[in-house]
Design brief:
- By secondary structure, the protein is of the alpha/beta class.
- 24% of the residues lie in helices and 24% in strands.
- The protein contains four helices and twelve strands; from the N terminus they run αααββββββββαββββ.
- The protein has helices spanning 7-28, 31-44, 47-50, 141-146, and strands at residues 54-56, 77-84, 87-92, 97-99, 105-107, 120-122, 127-129, 134-135, 154-158, 164-165, 179-182, 185-187.
- The strands form three sheets. It has a seven-stranded mixed sheet. Strands 8-7-10 form a three-stranded mixed sheet. It has a two-stranded antiparallel ribbon with strand order 4-5.
Amino acid sequence: MLQFQSKVAQSKDLIRRLCKLIRHKLHCDNEISKISEKITENIVNSEVFKNAKNIMIFYPLEEEINLLSLLENKDKNFYFPKCDGENILVCPDCGEFKQNKYKINEPTSKPIENLDILDIIFVPALCADMNFYRIGYGSGYYDRLLADSKIKAKKIIPIAQYLLCKELPLDDFDVKCDCIVCESGFIN
């Protein structure tokens, strides 16, 4: 049986392809590491970060924003996502990682059950809009995690300004984040 994508899904696929090209160009021009450094600096200097104790970050793919230097803040507890079927588990940083089927490094530690301890969740994105929605890789892992009613954490999208747009097409399951941080600062 043939299955056709909705217009929203088709337009999201087109946006994903375009954003991957933009991000690849930023990577090839050695800009993504400079942007990552500036975003990390903006995070470290923010009140939301200073006041946070339990922070979920992500292990970046080669062309993604890299927040790993945040781990130098020894007064914070860091957590990483781990894929489990179609869901994300939240695991403490143990310093040991193993690649999953998507070639993403995941912690080898056991997941936490109490998600309401998280103060911040940094949410990866291919692009984001000024309404604090994002487009990821299309598997819905983060949307399912962020829809969990136990999560009270501030949901922050770290992203290069080049990958911001006014408005993205949305599906019913898309979860709105709280703010964006880019190289020029926070957008609330």
